[in-house]
Amino acid sequence: MRISHAKSLKEMIKVIHSIDLIKVLGKFKETDVKGRYLHWNDFKYKKNDEDIDIDLAWAATKISRLQSSKKINIGEYQFSFCVPDSLQRDLHTIDKKSSGYIGTNNPESMDGVNNKYLVHSLIMEEAISSAQLEGASTTRRIAKKMLELDRKPKNKSEIMILNNYLLMKKALEMKNESLSIELILSFHEIATTGAIENNAVCGEFRQTDDIYVRNHLQEVIYTPPKADKLYDLMSDLCNFVNTRHDCEEGEFFIHPVIKAILLHFFIGFIHPFGDGNGRTARALFYWFMMKSGYWLFEYTSISKLIKNAPIQYAKAYLYVEDDELDTTYFLYHQIDIIMRSIDELNNYLHRKQRELAYFLTRIKNSKIASKLNFRQIDILKKAAKEPGRQFIAKSISIEYSVSENTARSDLKGLEDNGLLLLIGNSKVRTYISPSDLLDNLLDN
Fold it and tell me: Which parts of the sequence belong to the Fido domain (predicted)?
């Protein structure tokens, strides 16, 4: 992947006349007229309304960005970022769309928490997609079944997925903790146990400098900082994250979503581990989002969307490195990913609500249905859709985040009402959906 080098303002001033530059100052903002924060790689192809020389236009744009940028020092590196109007708009959209609607009362609700149950299985999606992004080859269906049934992983790909699932649960568990090197190392250890390469060690920073970031052609596109600088860099990163950038403790305000994205970026840039940097970085992003009150992100998957367009993800990193460590490029990329992940969650939830509403209309005359809890209704919906489907307490417990005793009680209640059939003589009680389930429901 090759990009055109973005000349710095110092480089530009050497080749353009200052008088010409003064004439165009103020005519160019941080973004173009469409609100896009373009790197030189794309900027150089864009025409401007007054047909101003492209080098002058770039220099004026760089000055505008410099005037509104904020600086962040991590070790010897000075990063910057801007929050142009289009980015402010997107941050507002994220805040608005991720406000707490899951679990609120709903006309179609059985017990007031149906929406949360409908999306609970999505916790597995990020674990699966994050592992697939790093090369895990197991299909989503097989991986989800492994997690639902609490089956032991059979290969490295399944180990990666299970590790990521445990890591997401750990991130939620630790959301009230401050960031520390110990926390980061514990995340890495969970992510990589039994699934690590490059002679790296689980839960330890790399000790060598033979780690490079390569593109799909195996070309080296980035060389991380030296190993002997890692501890200091990671200490600075922890200090940055733990500082409350609320204009009281921090010198300026940083929106929590921006800070979460920057945490993600800095782990990738510092590359403290021989393997597992991506998995750890994305887990820390979720950790900070949930720490900041964005609990909705327990149910979204950014890795799935990154996996669908890995080149754009890599480009966002390259743009930052090439253009004087301006992280705004990565912010725009990730905020677009976040907004699309929220939209996917909304679409999924609306689809599930429609399916549930349709199922409820079909069984509204059933006397038994009115006595069942929401979990049992949702189990029956799945059972009616797929005759022969099997259910066990363990998978119900995981999917609906209830105890196994509660799950057993739910399934036993459905069996007692003749809606599910108990099969086999195994110690694990297995229930199957009969082909005449709807008839049985409507007859009672």
Answer: 179-333
